[in-house]
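## tool: complex_structure
## caller: assistant
## args:
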Amino acid sequence: MRGKTFIAHDELPEVLERLSKTMDVWIPTAINDEKCVIQFLPYQPDRLPVLDRQSTMPPKKVIFPQVETLLHFSRKKDENDPFKSHIELEDEEEVSPVLVFGARPCDVRGFLVFDEVYLNGPYKDPYYAKRREKTLFATLVCETSDNACFCSAVGSGPADQTGSDLWIIPVDSGYVIEALTKRAENLMPEMGKDATEAQIAEAQNVQKKVAALHIGEGDLTQSSDDFEDRFSDNEFWRDMAFKCISCGICTYVCPTCYCFNITDEAKDLDGERIRSWDSCMFNHYTREASGHNPRPSKLERYRNRIGHKFSYFPKKYKGMIACCGCGRCIRRCPVALDIRNVVLSLKKNKENVDV
Amino acid sequence: MPMDEKTKTLQEDFEKNFADLELVIGWETGFDRLHATPVFIRQPSELGKLVWNPLCSQNLSGYLAKNLDASIQEDGKKIGICVKGCDSRSLVALIQENFIDRDRLYIVGIPCEGTVDLRRLMHLKPSLENVRKVDIEGDEAVVETDQETLRFPIENVLARKCLRCLYPNPVIYDTMIGTPLKPRISEDKLYSAVEKFDTSDRKQRLAFWKTEFNRCIRCYACRNACPLCVCQDNCIAESRKPKWLTQRDGIREKFLFHMIHGLHLAGRCTECGE
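## result:
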């Protein structure tokens, strides 16, 4: 295996430029240099990566776009009988190889949750699978946390390399890069020049320092039973969900939320079947064709969000919880609703609960 | 009146009047001291949670129409609610539209020097740790952390709507905490930014709106936080019958959604900025 490489700060655009000749390189970037909103976009010479803070939106859309076309359809009328028509379908879409440069460990962990559902279950999602297979992650060891971060409380951490293909360690004058998987090795010749002993030693220190950090309090991974005990405690859920305004931002900024909707968007004889992000916080998410809605209020919907992430999911998928601790749902919530507080509260004052 | 004193006066006022109240809606400190979050208090012992500071940005009046049935009075008990100037204007609109019965409310109005836009603050200072207090002193926002005291010109960190706010004082209230403030802007300058924007040509204006709306992720937080977006689960942006918008995430759909939002609020919007 080739050793570690080094990219100086001013060489980074050059490296990204070179890489983007053979693949789509997605970087966290700010539009108009307004660092208020940072999102992952394909690299272009006028787009610089913003690596000094977590992105507003995770790189979820790189593999799971907010909207993707599953197929095109067109109705062709029968020339001899105008009352007859047949449908023509077209569903092939080429996917290019992708490098996500500058994601954080929590962002990448989100895809491990996706993998369980879309790749490892009884049904394999072909749309997700073809993108996932061609996507590599160059992940930045995470030195910048804030009070909404809690990756260590969900069994990960700011130096967690799980799911990453390349590892980026910021040092004083640039970045030290290391290949973690076999498929990433081919990219190493493009990743700057060989790192010096001193740079490698500096990088090891950073890695060691960050690995020792514990981000977030408590352990949220063992909450399944507490959730079940709490399930029918309506007063608890009313209090927890009261401030929620039922928007979908927590699910849209979440690296692990994978629910989607499928709709046919047609005009005249042609149209597309598209798949788009859905949100369990919306009323119509569970509205049935009859008009009945099993989750009619935000109490049921919020309870489901907690249950799905911290109870149903780990029960089904070998104990893995569907939360990566990135804190975006807390940080971006218009009313600062704190999911950690809700999960930790499951355990509190249990004497009132009918078990 | 200093901020801490206002918080104290606020708590004391509700303590005094709690016998007539079934619920108090206010703000408390959120997951850290840089975030405020709505709080719903049903026990007088919890009144100590209430805070008032420039982070109390959420307009709480929406909860009255959407979460609680504040349009009818049954047991004689009232709902206590804290409002800034802009929030109080939303209350007036909701009362006018018969969503809320004025007699059902005990309104505590707080003159407001403006709220801090955290995105603007974090843009300038991405890692703000161990924040103790955020306050406004004259033309500066003061952020006290365990280590240092930082001062920012308000132009750079206040929510933009607060910089051009004509109503810092509540227009409807039962009790006012503190003394009324003078608006930062005179009425004739209120729309100067809009007037300037209006002088740019159509192409430039369209380019501006496209850039702005392109950021939209259609999470509907703006709609749901809006106290006057009262259609709730029946918004035509999401209905399939009639179908105005597709599920696509292109600029056309985002533009149309915001046009719908804008037009439905025309003449009703109180510029609370939610």
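## assistant note: The longest strand of chain B covers residues 21-29. Chain B touches chain A at residues 30-32, 34-40, 58, 62-63, 66-67, 119-120, 122-123, 126-129, 211, 214-215, 217-221, 223-225, 232-233, 238, 240, 246-250, 274 (CB under 8 Å). Handing back to user.
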